[in-house]
Amino acid sequence: MFFLASIKQVNQFERGVRFRFGKLRDEMEPGWRIVWPIIESWQKIDIRVKAVDVPDQEAITRDNVSARVNAVIYYRIQGATKAVIQVEDFFFAVSQLAQTTMRNVIGETSLDDLLSKRNAVATKIQQIIDKATDPWGVKVESVELKDIILPSEMKRVIA
């Protein structure tokens, strides 16, 4: 019975991080693994691409126009050990980093560039977030700007 409780399964889309007496032992590849109760613990990490829906971010562009931007970020874990050890909650950390980065990049961008060069703005956001999350074992695959909402009076001026 004790031995059966020790057998753990790591699926193809997961990695396991094993600790012995609270100290990092190894990263477990897919397959059946033995984790000895009492002296060892482990954590399963899903390495598939995940999407983070970044809530609307209100920001003022470089030319002092207020805009609300909504985005989605696609990321995956490429270093399970780093994701467990370097950051407490990588999902929350990526979401918070994305929100602040979006506001900062929009603040450096003119309204015209924000509207006409969406892909360039999204790429800049992606590169900044990817660089910041690299020590966490997180790879940001892409950032997509879903919606750019302008104040109603600004919409009338543009139309």
At the first level of CATH, the class of the largest domain is: Alpha Beta
At the third CATH level, what is the topology name of the largest domain? Tetrahydropterin Synthase, Chain A
| Outline | elongated
The H-and-E topology, N to C, reads as: HEEEEEEEHHHHEH
Structural class from helices and strands?
alpha+beta
Strand content: 35-45%
Number of domains: 2
Second-tier CATH architecture of the largest domain? 2-Layer Sandwich
Largest sheet: 3 strands, antiparallel
Helix content: 25-40%
Number of strands: 8
Number of helices: 6
What is the subunit arrangement here?
Answer: single chain
Mean pLDDT: 92
Summarize it.
The strands form three sheets. This protein has a three-stranded antiparallel sheet with strand order 3-2-5. Strands 6-7-8 form a three-stranded antiparallel sheet. Strands 1-4 form a two-stranded antiparallel sheet. With 159 residues, it is α+β, with helices and mostly antiparallel strands.
For this entry, give a set of tags.
159 residues, alpha+beta, Tetrahydropterin Synthase, Chain A, 2 domains
Overview of the structural elements:
This protein has helices spanning 2-6, 80-85, 90-107, 111-116, 118-133, 152-158; strands at 7-10, 14-20, 23-28, 31-34, 40-46, 50-60, 66-77, 138-149. The longest helix has 18 residues, at 90-107. It folds into 2 domains: 2-46, no CATH class; 50-158, Tetrahydropterin Synthase, Chain A. The mean pLDDT is 92. The protein is an alpha+beta fold and 159 residues long. The strands form 3 sheets. A 3-stranded antiparallel beta sheet has the order 3-2-5. The chain has a 3-stranded antiparallel beta sheet with strand order 6-7-8. Helix content is 36%, strand content 40%. Strand 2 and strand 3 form a beta hairpin. The protein is built from 6 helices and 8 strands. The protein is elongated, with a radius of gyration of 21 Å.
